[in-house]
Sequence to fold (630 residues):
Amino acid sequence: MIVMKTTNIKFHYRLLLVVSFILGTIGCKDSYLEPKPLSFFAPENSLVDAKGMYAALTACERNMRYEWYGDGSPIITELTFSEVCVEGTTDKPGPAQNMNIQITPTSQLNHGDFNKIGWFWLEQYKGIKYANVVIDRIDQATYKSQAERNAILGSAYFHRAYRYYRLCNQFGDVPFIGKEVKEPKLDFYSTKREVILKKMQKDMEFAAANCLDNVDRGRVTKGAAGHLLTKINLALGEFDKAIASASAVIDGGAYSLMTSAFGSIPKEDGAYLTNLGVVRSDVVSRLHWWQNKAIAANKEVLFMVLSREELVDSREDLQVMRQAVPFWGVSNSNMLYTPDGFAPGTSDLANQEIDQVKTFGRGIGRARGTSYHTKKIWDDPNDLRHKKYNWMNMEDLVYNHPNLKGKSAFYGKPLQMRDANNKVLTTDTIRNWFGWPHYKIYNPDPRATQPRGGSYDWYVFRLAETYLLRAEAYWWKGDIVNAMADVNKVHTRAGAAPYTDASKFDIGTILDERARELYWEEPRKTELNRIAFLFAQTGKSYRGNAYTATSFGTKNFYYDRIMEYTDFYNKGVKANNGQQYTMSPYHVLWPIPQASISTNTKGRINQNFGYDGFALNVPALTSIPAEEDN
Fold:
């Protein structure tokens, strides 16, 4: 039996610790680092036992959760650099749409109105810094047992490996920092991606063997460690090891797919029940109901980030209802017309006769689902994830603007995209008109009259993905029968019929299931890139295309996949802001922010192919120096 407890470490305690760690690791003079009288929260005083070490790791946990929270959250950049979404903000020129022009090493790379490429670069190294504090100081504390010490070290290894796994697949070769940095350092060098991943593999083998399952939600579990190890094994092309590490999680007894409805959806939640006139009793909606994610009955969750409405000082709002829902209802804007010519046709103001904003939120269409995600991947009408009211289409909303009552015959009637003369009834088909997974996106927002998505927990790793990772490992080995069986575990759980035709089963089938199951959870570009590296490494072809490592920047699976499945890039599509959607093969890797290269005056951080500065590269390191191998 896996026992999960609700974390209750006070935020102020966490914050003081985090601040002390930051001050102790930013590279100041030695005199500044000396403990001062009454400095109780200095690392030397706080990292003395398991409690102090776990408190230090909350800095890693807090740093990780920012990817899914807030306005313009970084996960949007992962999604819009994939075939699942495009950047839908069409009223300003900054968002990443015309990538051939907008994505450069000197562009704005860390802003919600542009993209969050730079956020991933900076914040993931922050997470590495926090983890290195614990790793370096692991034997300065006293523990109840060696097992307790090893579990903490494994957790710190997890947080470091998680960041390096992401960096190595987003940026390729990157600097490796394996020790706590205590003084200014300006001589970083890029290290080969494979070298870093091999080091992370070793660390995660230790973590998977020593982390525990009976820990608080939000902390690293043995299952999460095995899951991340599987991803790293896959990234290295070690498919037998990937199968073994995934199987250890799947068959370990602590976790299981949720295959029947569990938990509850309170009757008083009128926004989700009454307005749609349907009670959520299926396993898919219960799995993603905000109150069910962290409960003990949920055996599918391997790792999650936490945020709670009741923790006033530390809560973060998901705002996913703002980011991933169409811009459907500004009451004073003529965006949606009725078929009989009235506008505005909709209103997202609260407390109206037909109140839709409480149910759907005030969406702004920033993460605009592509036709691939909203239509093409749904191959079974019985799939619960695409059933009406779990999945919302624009036609499921109604014309609700109060000014229409008594004037338009369409007041209270479903929205229409075109009138009888085939005239489009919206001013912006990119931002205002697309479907979305309501069962996953809906998160109540009790502090807002126009909900954006409140402060709730979010999945990072679930067992459903572990099955899909093992399926991929089987596929790379040519074992289609077992690959198909693992995908079917997830596919049939959602009510869809199993796949049976091995001749039609390929990596695309697995990616489609990932898109259906893991939307807004998986870092989609990271995973596409990992697969692109594998195609280049193995020489395996994809639908007639073969790839090599030497031509990775000019021909790769990542780019071909996006060109195959999206109807935006390089097809002349323009947004209302005048930007045309463009992309090139070299966008498989993001640019290293120029500021990090320029300030590294005694070393060389290499730039990726296709971006200014690439010609100045030097050979990346092919081993980790002994002093960094920690």
User: Anything to note?
Assistant: Confidence is low (pLDDT under 50) at residues 1-40, 270-274. The longest helix spans residues 146-170.
